[in-house]
Each structure stands twice: as structure tokens, then as C-alpha cells.
Amino acid sequence: MVNFLKMHGLGNDFVIIDMRTNISKLENSLIKKISDRKKGIGCDQLISIYRSDDGISDCKIKIFNCDGTEAESCGNAIRCVGSELLKELDKDNLLIETKAGLVDVEKQSDGLISVDMGLVKFNWDQIPLSHPQDTQDLMIETRKLKKGIAVNVGNPHVIFFCKDLVESQLLEDCKKVSKMKIFPMGVNISMVKVENKNKINLITFERGCGFTQACGTAACASVVVCNKMNLCEKRTDVSMRGGKLTIDYLSDGHVLMTGPVSKIFEGNYNESDLE
Fold it and tell me: Hey, which residues are catalytic here?
């Protein structure tokens, strides 16, 4: 039997498996089965927790999309795991090791969880793109999605501005962009509508998942892009289908993401039951 925890951040949901206490091999096929919403537990991403390798962080996590591919970072997942570890270790802040680097997590006085997502990267090879190109205008032309601004917030993102954020109308365009060879590691696709200087609306077609209720790194990427275009302040609320995150683009270039997390249930499974 393998124990797991089901959590979500603004509807972006996760199956979390603590590999410090569970002995299980998370192969690609098993991740797909666990993530399946009809035959498995169901989630956007599966998160596994390990003991730290570096002697600095409090733990290490791996993040797997529902198609079995590994992601470098996920802001909502880090907040969920961080909230549980803060209680477990009786700390006010901690460090989590991810594929994208060390991430600082802190509990706020109002119970919300903040994550320092680090520095945003803007160079073509840091995103990465397949070849040198102006990351501020990828010259993408689909029916609804035009131009495209690329950044990396632990994982690759491309930002588009749209008047109407209707998923059904943008699905085919998102599929086309996700298959473009310019993104050798895949890409998270975000559509932004600016409401005012302190609020933007956002929907995201996540790499390996499709449309999700919320995406923390996409919220960070969108605020950074909007701020550099003088469309929003450095502190801005990002409204998504699952709820709101507050993003702070700090003076040192780091991006701070703050929002709620929710524990749904705890359970266990037999791998044979997922066959």
C-alpha cells in the first residue's frame, strides 16, 4: 500500500507521495494511471517528496505532469507541499529543492503561503528556444494568438494578450503553439487580459496537462511581462478560474507568489489496483 495526500492550490490539484516513508517506483506508466481522473486518483500533477541531497534544503521534490513528463517547477505544488512541511517541521519558513533550483517557502500571518520563485529569465537559451530569437516577439501567428512573449520562471512560458479568455475558442491555437519546434522542452501557454494596473485575468494551457484551474508560475510570468510593458504595478492580483494569487515583482528581480492551499483528503492505493 502506498500512502498519498490529495491537495490543490486554486483548483490546480496534486497527488503528493512522500517517498521518505513510502517505497515505490514512480515510472511513467504508473504516473499516468494515478493521474487518470476516471480510473485513477486524478490530478493535474503528481508530486514526490524526497530527503534533501544538498544538506541545505529541507526536502527535495519532483514534479510530474499527468502525461508522465517531468516539470522543473510548479508554484501551486510548492505552496501545497510547503504548507504541509511547515506544519511537520514546526517552522515559519523552509527551503525546497526543485529541478529548477532552491525555493523559499513562508507562511504568512493570515495563513496564506508565499513562495519566492526566484529570478525570471529572458534570454532565448534560458527559456529555452530552439534558436536565437527576440523573446519579446516570437512572431507567432495563429487564428487567435499573435506574437508571443517568452520568459522562464523555473519553467518555460509564452504570454499572449487576448480580449476574450474563452478556453474553447483558444484550444486549437494552444495545441498548435504547444507543438511548435521553437520550444524544444515544451511550453506553458498563457492568455492575459489586463483589467487595470492592479489586476489581470489569466488562463493557462499547461505543458503536459492542458487547461488548468490555475498556474502559479504562469501568474508570475504574466505579471513580470505586464509590468515591463507598464501595464500593471509590481504588486498585482492575478485572477484565474480557480481563484486569485497576489504576485510581487521585487526590486531585486525575484518574484514572490502568495495564495491559499487546501488539503482534500488522504488515502492509499495498491499499484495492482491501477492496472
Answer: 74, 215
